[in-house]
């Protein structure tokens, strides 16, 4: 797919981190970018920087996502690119015993469901609604109408202690990549997923330096955290290379996460 000023894109979670880097990389190609996020102040600033548009969107709400797509399409036309970076995480053991008094508790199911709703259902919600819009586009070269990139995590394959919900949510994204690609193959819409390792995102930047150093040292090579533009580079490769379809790709410096 050619990326230029005739292309419209939506990036969820585009106010910071991996999504912001991707929004900026797309805009650098001339693409008209709409950012979906709940961080309005940051999102408005990024949108202003790149000449895009910000849409305050909660990916767990049909109404919010519909309103976001309506606003984006009114400004830029129907998007042919969707990159899903909106997501969050938590760390709670499935069941555990208190070191203080020996009391036993389990993972609160509401917290489990909350994470699934954001990371997995929220991703699918945006993909399904964007794909339906892409079906209205005239096909281009090879009959292509659109390209979608989803974001999972190496935790989908190497989940650590306390990551049952997070790994389930990201494993679900990996698991639905090929079926969605097959669902959309006759309409010329490609779907791929990136599994990032440990990246230097705003969340990680809040960790103590010794923790960050230890995590960087655990990466086989290069021995550092990933940088958001490296994620964006792979996302654009998946979009621009029209033979890239139905794939789940780790971007992790060859790390394999230990139990803790």
From TrEMBL:
Pfam families: adh_short. InterPro entries: NAD(P)-bd_dom_sf, Sc_DH/Rdtase_CS, SDR_fam. The keyword Iron does not apply. The keyword rRNA processing does not apply. PROSITE patterns: ADH_SHORT. Coiled coil: none annotated. One of its GO terms (molecular function) is oxidoreductase activity. Keywords: Oxidoreductase. SUPFAM superfamilies: NAD(P)-binding Rossmann-fold domains (SSF51735). Belongs to the short-chain dehydrogenases/reductases (SDR) family. PANTHER family: 17-BETA-HYDROXYSTEROID DEHYDROGENASE 14-RELATED, SHORT-CHAIN DEHYDROGENASE/REDUCTASE. This is SDR family NAD(P)-dependent oxidoreductase. It comes from Sphingomonas alpina.
């Amino acid at each position: 797919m050619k990326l230029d000023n005739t292309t419209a894109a939506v990036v969820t979670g585009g106010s910071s981190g991996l999504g912001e880097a991707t929004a900026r990389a797309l805009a650098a190609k001339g693409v008209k970018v709409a950012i979906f996020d709940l961080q309005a102040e940051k999102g408005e600033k990024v949108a202003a920087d790149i000449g895009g548009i910000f849409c305050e969107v909660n990916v767990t709400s049909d109404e919010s996502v519909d309103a976001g797509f309506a606003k984006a399409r009114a400004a830029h036309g129907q998007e042919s690119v969707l990159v899903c970076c909106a997501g969050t995480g938590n760390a709670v053991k499935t069941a555990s015993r208190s070191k203080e008094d020996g009391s036993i508790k389990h993972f609160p199911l509401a917290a489990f469901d909350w994470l699934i709703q954001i990371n997995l259902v929220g991703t699918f919600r945006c993909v399904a609604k964007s794909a339906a819009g892409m079906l209205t586009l005239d096909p281009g070269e090879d009959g292509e109408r659109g390209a979608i990139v989803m974001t999972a995590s190496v935790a989908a394959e190497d989940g650590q202690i306390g990551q049952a919900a997070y790994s389930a949510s990201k494993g679900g994204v990996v698991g639905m990549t090929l079926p969605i690609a097959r669902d959309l193959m006759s309409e010329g819409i490609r779907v791929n997923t990136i599994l990032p390792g440990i990246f230097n995102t705003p969340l990680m930047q809040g960790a103590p330096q010794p923790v960050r150093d230890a995590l960087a040292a655990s990466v086989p090579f290069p021995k550092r955290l990933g940088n958001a533009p490296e994620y964006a580079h792979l996302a654009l490769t998946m979009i621009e290379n029209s033979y890239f379809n139905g794939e789940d790709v780790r971007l992790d410096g060859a790390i394999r996460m230990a139990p803790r």
